[in-house]
Amino acid sequence: QVRLVESGGALVRPGESLRLACAASGFAFSSTVMSWYRQAPGKEREWLAWISGTGIQSNADSVKGRFTISRDNGENTVYLQMNSLEPNDTAVYLCSARLGTSDYWGQGTQVTVSS
C-alpha cells in the first residue's frame, strides 16, 4: 500500500528556513519521480518541484533560488529545503508520487510564515 507522510511544518518568522520531509513506503521509491506541491486557503494547488530517482530536478519559477528538492533513496525520503520564507509561502505542503498514470498524495504539513 502506497503511503506518503509529510513532516516538518511549523510556524516561522519571515526570512527563516524550514526543511520538510516526506517518508514514503509501499512502492519502488528509488525509481519514482517525487514532487512537492502546496495549497494555500482559497487557492489552487501549486506545483513547486520534482525530482527523479537519479536526482534530476526541476523547480517552479516562483520558488527558484529559495526552495530545493532532494531525496535519500536509502531512507525512502524526499525533502524540501525552504529558505528566506515569506508570508505568502503560508500553505499546506504536500508530497506526491507518480506511479504509472496515477498520482498519490500525503496528508500534508502546515507551514505558516508570520511575524
Helix content: under 10%
Q: Provide mean pLDDT, rounded.
A: 96
Question: Structural class given helices, strands, pairing?
Answer: mainly beta
What portion of residues belong to β-strands? over 45%
Distance between the termini: 40 Å
Tertiary shape = globular
How big is the Rg? Answer: 13 Å
Low-confidence stretches: none
Describe the sheet with the most strands: 7 strands, mixed
Question: How are the SSEs placed, and which strands pair?
Answer:
Blueprint: E1 3-7, E2 11-12, E3 18-25, E4 34-39, E5 46-51, E6 57-59, E7 67-72, E8 77-82, E9 91-99, E10 102-105, E11 109-113
Parallel strand pairs: 2-11
Antiparallel strand pairs: 1-3, 3-8, 4-5, 4-9, 5-6, 7-8, 9-10, 9-11
Describe this entry's structure for a reader:
This protein is an all-beta fold. Helices cover 0% and strands 52% of the residues. The chain contains no helices and 11 strands. The strands form 2 sheets. Strands 2, 4, 5, 6, 9, 10 and 11 form a 7-stranded mixed β-sheet that branches. Strand 5 and strand 6 (57-59) form a beta hairpin. The radius of gyration is 13 Å and the shape is globular. The model has no long low-confidence stretch (mean pLDDT 96).
